Fold each of these.
Amino acid sequence: MSGIIETAGLSRFYPGDGAPVRAVDGVDMSVAEGESVSVMGPSGCGKSTLLHLVGGLERPTAGTVTIAGQRVDGLSEAAWARLRRRSVGFVFQAFHLVDELSAVENVELPALLVGTSRRAARRRAMELLERLGVADRATHLPDRLSGGQQQRVALARALVNEPVLVLADEPTGNLDSHATGEILRLFAGLREARQTLLLVTHDPRVAASADRLLTMRDGQIVEDTRLDGGLPRQAVLAQIAGWEA
Ligand SMILES: Nc1ncnc2c1ncn2[C@@H]1O[C@H](COP(=O)(O)OP(=O)(O)OP(=O)(O)O)[C@@H](O)[C@H]1O
């Protein structure tokens, strides 16, 4: 059965001083529906670029991306915008919140854009803010929120339309361990709802919470480790600690 994400020979090269920088270099990847997959690897190995290619924020130099059976690497910007609004939730390293809108207005915006009623959008937005522990900040503008609070609002916004695919770049980067725990619980809920999660992280605890761990080096996936019932999580944490050191 084909996965919700399939890539074949996926590559993205950037011009360098001499030879091009091979940010992503011939990645063949298959992620099944409902699976959560974390991507780790040293700084600059191509993790964010891979996520951007899958989410249509960058165009491949070569290779293909298929989401839910549809080739997406050649889609127009407008088609990508529609797909992202409905089916692909993206959590960026920078939060991209709308400065003029309150936290709850930011979260409900994508729901209103796909025609959800005001009342249902507000209910869903508040529910997510509550689950992420930031409901008491719902009426604040982004510049009145801490980095970690903005990050959780951005995550709530990515999830408001219950996308089939969630792409997250360092979703716990600014968070303390309590808030990280809340996000991990939310991610566990995605799995129950058969939503698929592809996330880039430097946090071994976050990585080990996924079903599968992909390790990247120099633009390539060099290890693909199954964590659900495969390797004990402690062994994975030790393995990660080894190459992060
Ligand atoms: N727009 C760009 N132009 C030129 N080079 C780029 C561009 N974006 C990324 N790169 C280069 O591509 C390589 C991979 O970058 P990428 O951001 O994907 O790495 P990463 O693994 O996510 O790093 P980090 O963990 O530090 O966020 C790096 O060498 C980077 O300098």
Amino acid sequence: MTTTKPLSIVVAINPQASFGRSRAVGPAVVHTLRAAGHDVTGLTEPDYEQLRAAAAAALAKKPDALVVVGGDGMVNLGVNLVAGTGIPLGIVPSGTGNDMSRGLGIPVGNTERAIDLLLGALGRPPRTIDAGHVTHGDGSTSWYACVLSAGFDAIVNERANLMRWPRGRQRYNLALLRELAMLKPIRYRLELDGVASETDAVLIAVANNTSLGGGMLVTPDARLDDGLLDVLVVQPLSRTAFLRIFPRVFKGTHVTDARVSISRARRIRIDADDIVAYADGERVSALPVEVEVRPGALRVLAPIP
Ligand SMILES: Nc1ncnc2c1ncn2[C@@H]1O[C@H](COP(=O)(O)OP(=O)(O)OP(=O)(O)O)[C@@H](O)[C@H]1O
């Protein structure tokens, strides 16, 4: 175990991450950080909004770090609190997808090792990475770390959120099948670094990280610290073609298909009728959104790449 000078650390825990299957992770993080001599404020609340408010109040006291325990939704909560503030963000993954941890090289499914790496990272300067800054149609703003998407997968998310049954991952799978049956092109109005175009597509994603959905390599060459965002556009596809390309996303080999394109940009405006954007798996807002990369806006407690 690495030792460092005692630090004040806020730990925000989602006990419902991974459908409540990883409740032991939060207490283990708090216990191990305390045993290492740190001054730890452990936060658990009945829901996300209350946890966000409690973490914001704790951050007003300027702690040395914020650690989130959960999945990408918790990373999103943390990113929205610390981006641009200089406060380092640590992540102990206990969610379903954990794509930010995957991108940062934080072990998924090995809590002990993830906590050990966190302790190590607390003893050296944080890694600096980019963040996505989103301006919504009403002028409000938010941040994200992994992938913002506004198309088929966002439609599936919307559908899954409206469903009461089944519980867990099956709800998402069922929503996917239902929406696949209705797959149709979306007319997008897109602007990449000031260059406007109109295009029909089934999916547009703007990525800082390589994956979403638990390791699906949507933008396999994205870099967290290159000062750029990778823009994935999937042109209209038949259901059969979609089902043929879909499994290839897990290895990132879909990018060789002629209907898939990836380009890089700093500022992206996406608009389409009746489409809601999601980022890091959380609902952002209805389109239009304007996304801008903010190089170096995040400091993360992660292994050295
Ligand atoms: N007590 C709670 N504290 C925080 N979040 C909660 C709580 N109860 C339910 N949630 C919900 O958990 C969601 C975030 O879950 P999180 O991302 O941490 O795990 P996951 O969904 O299993 O993982 P991933 O996003 O990586 O697939 C939020 O949308 C939030 O509404």
